[in-house]
Amino acid sequence: MEGFREVLAKRNLNDLGWKCEKFTWSNRHGDESSTKERLDRAVANSAWIEVFNEVWVEILAARTSDHKPILIHVLKGKKRNWVKNQGFKYEANWALEEDCEEVMRHVWNKDEGYVVPLEKVVTFLDRSKKALLLWSRQRRRGGEREIEEKTRVLQ
Hints:
Helix content: 40-55%
Oligomer: single chain
Number of strands: 6
InterPro entries: Endo/exonu/phosph_ase_sf
Distance between the termini: 72 Å
């Protein structure tokens, strides 16, 4: 193992990790002598990682061998910023606001003649997300101004 680690270090090879299942080998014992290990790995140097910067390794199910195959998913292009992209969360209290309904009506009334119904739904959902996020930001800024004004009046 020490020799293996030396080669990895000399060649600047980094383990690409794994997604979901960790173990790639099992002795297939169904009792207390069952053993699982992560023997098979995907490695790459930093130059390769810079080119193919969105990579994940999936451990697949074993069919005939005691080793599970690994599948390397590779996307070339811009690296996703996972920290900033935390997903979209619809706030239930938005439905109580009259102008929220107007924002949604405006988005969903724009029909651009999509042929594939699913494409239409996906596009409308994406537009809804963007419109609601913008509307929410503007609403929050307006609320902050209103609080400042009322604080001044109270003072």
